[in-house]
Amino acid sequence: MAVWQKHRFTAIIENMVEKVIPKVIPIRINEGKGLAPSIGAQLIAPHGNTQDTRGRILRDLRISVTDRCNFRCTYCMPKEVFDQNYPYLSHKELLSFEEITRLTSIFSTLGVEKIRLTGGEPLLRKNLEVLIAMLAQVRTPDSKPLDLTLTTNGSILRKKATALKAAGLQRLTVSLDGLDDAIFKKMNDVDFPVADVLDGIAAAQEAGFENIKVNMVVKKGTNDHEIIDMAQHFKGSGVILRFIEFMDVGSSNGWNMAQVLPSKEVIARINAVFPLEAIEANYSGEVAQRWRYVDGSGEVGVISSVTQTFCHECTRARISTDGQMYLCLFANEGFDFKTLLRSGKSDLEIANAIMNTWATRDDHYSEIRGSDTANQSTGHRKVEMSYIGG
Ligand code: SAM
Fold this sequence. Notes:
- It contains 12 helices and 12 strands.
- The protein is α/β, with parallel strands linked by helices and 390 residues long.
- A 12-stranded mixed sheet has the order 7-8-9-6-5-4-3-2-1-10-11-12.
- A hairpin with a 4-residue loop joins strand 10 and strand 11.
- The two termini are 41 Å apart.
- S-adenosylmethionine is lined by residues 69, 75-76, 118-119, 121, 151-153, 175, 215, 217, 244, 246-247, 249, 253, 385-386, 390.
């Protein structure tokens, strides 16, 4: 069979399969089979001013350390897709701690100062505190340590908090979608109780973490009635609560616009009970918009990736669990840095490959999304958030 015939045949079969099982598909589209990054013929010294095609500069990096999670949040890793047959990565496919540290230190020579470890559930990666201790040694070109943080579902934080702090983790974000046990259990879909996440947050505070944030994904009609209770609970606690609009990440969460509660509405609801005023971003490119309680009892944030997109100031790259560099959370293709790392290339060559890859970046997905991007027929199949790192 000629190559074009093979492609055509594959396309026909894929089309038929999608019609029969429209959503329940183990999605590893292109995962681990990324594009080859270009090192270029003329190597240049690493610098922190590489602009993408829209003038955006690389400043922060998210690294997914595992594609596995012990939760099955319906909006992220729904049970019907992420079941025992899902093709999770094997251990040898993952970047090792040494590879992650090497890549991070190369990124730091290119202006990256902020690193977030994520997943999947990052605390499921064995000995994660060892990786954190390694990353805590990395220095920027002007000898500063990196701003090192982690996003977790909090389920094993009670066990891990002290070791994470001792290893040099500076900040933590814990995800929690409500205080009502029935709602939360329905959303995490593994019957995990609210009390244990709250206990994880308490453990982090006891371990000395001062800068803790809580992320609540708001799904209209599912947990939006929890907004005020959540605000009340964390008001005055020192923990910063952030509300995230339900996003069309991946291709399996059945997203549609009717389930998005615009952040404006979140703020209006809180403001009606606990008056708020807008405050400045901490730094340019911060994705959360900040609001403080007028009575001085702390702040909340909103991340409006659907209704007020921030692509124009996005300075973020992502490394998937198996070492593919992605230029957007909503991308469907990555660049294979694992192969480069494992093929004896020098740090200078890898730095050039990163700069060249960033220079090609044109992504601005949130600005052009349709109203039903989860619909497979649009043909834009995005990689899953658990793999690319949330
Ligand atoms: N397991 C960790 C956790 O639960 O925080 C880290 C990975 S998780 C993918 C990172 C963050 O992405 C969480 O705060 C989660 O709620 C958020 N998230 C996942 N799917 C989302 C979606 N469809 N829309 C908005 N936020 C989402």
